[in-house]
UniProtKB/TrEMBL annotation:
<dbReference type="GO" id="GO:0005886">
    <property type="term" value="C:plasma membrane"/>
</dbReference>
<keyword id="KW-1133">Transmembrane helix</keyword>
<feature type="transmembrane region" description="Helical">
    <location>
        <begin position="42"/>
        <end position="60"/>
    </location>
</feature>
<feature type="transmembrane region" description="Helical">
    <location>
        <begin position="265"/>
        <end position="289"/>
    </location>
</feature>
<feature type="transmembrane region" description="Helical">
    <location>
        <begin position="177"/>
        <end position="196"/>
    </location>
</feature>
<dbReference type="Pfam" id="PF01594">
    <property type="entry name" value="AI-2E_transport"/>
</dbReference>
<feature type="transmembrane region" description="Helical">
    <location>
        <begin position="328"/>
        <end position="351"/>
    </location>
</feature>
<feature type="transmembrane region" description="Helical">
    <location>
        <begin position="236"/>
        <end position="259"/>
    </location>
</feature>
<feature type="transmembrane region" description="Helical">
    <location>
        <begin position="296"/>
        <end position="316"/>
    </location>
</feature>
<feature type="transmembrane region" description="Helical">
    <location>
        <begin position="72"/>
        <end position="94"/>
    </location>
</feature>
<dbReference type="InterPro" id="IPR002549">
    <property type="entry name" value="AI-2E-like"/>
</dbReference>
<keyword id="KW-0472">Membrane</keyword>
<dbReference type="GO" id="GO:0055085">
    <property type="term" value="P:transmembrane transport"/>
</dbReference>
<keyword id="KW-1003">Cell membrane</keyword>
<feature type="transmembrane region" description="Helical">
    <location>
        <begin position="12"/>
        <end position="36"/>
    </location>
</feature>
<protein>
    <submittedName>
        <fullName>Putative permease</fullName>
    </submittedName>
</protein>
<comment type="similarity">
    <text>Belongs to the autoinducer-2 exporter (AI-2E) (TC 2.A.86) family.</text>
</comment>
Amino acid sequence: MISLFKGWYSRHFSAPGTIEFALVLLAAFLVVYYLMWLVGPLVVALCFAYCLDWVVRLGTHKFKLKRMTSSAITMILFVGLSIGIMVFIVPKIVQQANQFYTNLQKISITAQGERKDDFDTLIATKTYEFIESLPEPIPSMFSQEEIDQYVVQTRSSILSNTNNIIRNQVMPSVVNAMSWMMYMIIVPIFTFLMLANKHTLQHRFRTYILPNNQSLIHEFWPKINAQIEGYIRGKILHIIIITIVNTLAFMFLGVNYAFLLGFGVGLSVIVPYVGAAVITIPVVLIPIFQFGFTSYLLWIYAVYLIIQLLDANVLTPMLFSKAMNLDAFSILSAILIFGGLWGFWGVFFSIPLATFIRTLFLYWPNSEVVDTTKYVRKSKE
């Protein structure tokens, strides 16, 4: 056992600088995990600076501006856009979320009462007609009254659980987020300083924190940076496009809570596979509550399905063809692990972090000569 461990250690940590680099990565993980309450503004500012750095580079390279000037212009545009979203879009989403929550409570009270809503009757009737079309002995096992009772109990249970989730989990998170109003002042300042003094801060980081073997960093960073930067930039653009398109579609079709549903569909792209499955539930149920079982539902679902197909087959490959090279198992595992560690931000950065770890595994110095290109080729296939 000891010889096996020594062999593994000599293969992966015999190159100069690998131990120091591993310790730096471990220390960074521990600091973020245990001291997030202390370094939170710095981490958030670093994420914003990383996302906005390409705009600063565009100003310095294409328009020949000084980095300080380009950083100032970038921050003015970013802060202005953020204020515009907070003033014109967020209140509308909050208003519709409040209306949805209020209506949910009313429906829950109605479902728990003695009278049955027309919606319950319609669901029960359609369900009973479907059961009657099945072969015996299934139809004889259920009566109309039992189906009515099951529908009322099911809807009451769903609405009660949804109310509890909104009241006990969603609302406390919103209130807690409001207590971080200081971020709105500190984070932009830190972001501007990081953008304006990028080269100085990088020099200090390389000098005092990174290992002496700088070739190790120069080997990893270009590969990691190209993928992560492309992914984050594409993901932000992806969220904006999907949010706008779905909001406009729901507004055009006259669906209630169009802003809320469009915003929810936009955020769902953060979590591949899982997000789309979760957001589909309110997208399907809200039109049913609003219009009932009419032919107009088919138009709503057809438009939503077309948008999803265009997103999956056109927009996503166009935005992430080079930045995202992970299989479904790795994506879901990263979402589960990093989401459990850091919540929303862990989910948002789960794919970049998974890409970072994958790059470490592929290109980590190894005393045995390994052709890593074949693993890259296989993963692409």
